[in-house]
Amino acid sequence: MRCWIICLTLTLLAGPLALPALAADLSATENQWLRSAAPVLAYARGQGLPMDIIVQPQVAAGLAPLAMAFVAGRCKLVLSMRGNPEAQATLDRIPAPLRDAAVELMVAHELGHCRRYLDGAWASVPAGFVPKLPSGLSDEYREAFGAMMEARREEGYGDLVGLAWTQMRHSGQYRLLYDWLAALRAQDLIPGSHHDTLAWVRLAQDGATLSQAGLFAGPAALWARGLQGAN
Predict the structure, then answer these.
(1) pTM for the structure as a whole
(2) How far is 89 from 94, CA to CA, in rounded Å?
(3) I want to staple 87 with a disulfide (CB 3.0 to 4.6 A). Which of 20, 65, 95, 99 is the partner?
(4) Buried-exposed string 52-75: b where 16+ CB fall within 10 A, e elsewhere
(5) pLDDT tens digits, one per residue of 179-193
(6) 54 three-state secondary structure
């Protein structure tokens, strides 16, 4: 992911994120996402994570409204929301009482990607785990399938971090948000595809399994347990 024309960049500095001063430069949808995401962004700042918020001002139809990139040692939380109806539609599909907490879950998911990048662990697996690849594939398809499985594993970890955040900050809503995420992942499911994370999500029905060792360590342990089930 990179900005392909020009970017509005908000850096997570030591002080509060100056969203009010930038509000006029942002769309209503962008402001809504960022207001809901503020607790996660404040956590990232408090942890000293090298992360910037990138708001793409050009038309971004067809792109994921929210994504994480890693450039020159810094994580980039990328909002691609202008001319992209999916950005508002995503919010509108979330039940209103869950909307802010669900956005926090999604941003925490991206924070999980950031942590894996910073740890130099992106696409890596624990020692002894051997991913299974179908036989009979050409080299091209074998490479593409392997890349898809790598992405799926990272998405699984991201979902667990999102759920760990939910347990830490919104434990009273955990079951509702868990059910929302599980239903989202089951919708139009293509087994084994990039966002088929249910092998991991199902391990987290009890949020307490995630939050006992912090935001990242608890999900990492559960993610490792789920690898065989997703293989």
Answers:
(1) 0.89
(2) 9
(3) 65
(4) bbbbbbeebeebebbebbbeeebb
(5) 999 999 999 888 888
(6) strand
